Amino acid sequence: MRAIKLKEHDTEEELLQEIRNIKNGRYQHRLRAVLFLKRGYKAKDIQKELLISSATYCSWIKKYNEHGKDILKEHRSGRKEGNPKYDAKLFQEVYEALDAMDEYWSIPKMQKLVEEKHGVKVPYETMRLRIKKAGYSYKSNRPSPYKGDKELQEEFKKMQS
After folding, report:
1. Which of 7, 43, 49, 153 is the most buried (most CB within 10 A)?
2. Each residue's pLDDT tens digit, 53-107
3. What is the C-alpha radius of gyration for the chain, rounded to an integer number of angstroms?
4. pTM reported for the whole predicted model
5. How many whole angstroms separate alpha carbon 161 and alpha carbon 157?
């Protein structure tokens, strides 16, 4: 690997001060790589000390050289387009169906309702979290007792109301 020369954006003391003052561990870790290089450590030693790959090391140093230390604060992960935003109206029908409780509603059944009515696919976990935030309790599908007496069950439901 060819050695990357470090541009003089900051002094060693400025980097050390920034590392001491900042609480973001990811940013500290990246600044340490720059600091160690500034102090004359070899790239392999820095990678070994910080437990990072050579690709990660090169990426950090190149970013620092091009933009300075502030670029090292950024951490882009997840969806590039960001998390999808869903209209609250999508879930209103689900809440109304749950309030009516004519039948058992599983998360997949709720997803299907939204997809059929609005043409929007809502992920399982998103639907589950929305239901939970709306104050409904969530239970996964359970088999009905095949020997259960339907009349006794209906009588029990009436007593609970």
Report:
1. 43
2. 988 888 888 888 888 877 777 776 666 667 778 888 888 888 887 877 766 778 8
3. 28
4. 0.48
5. 7
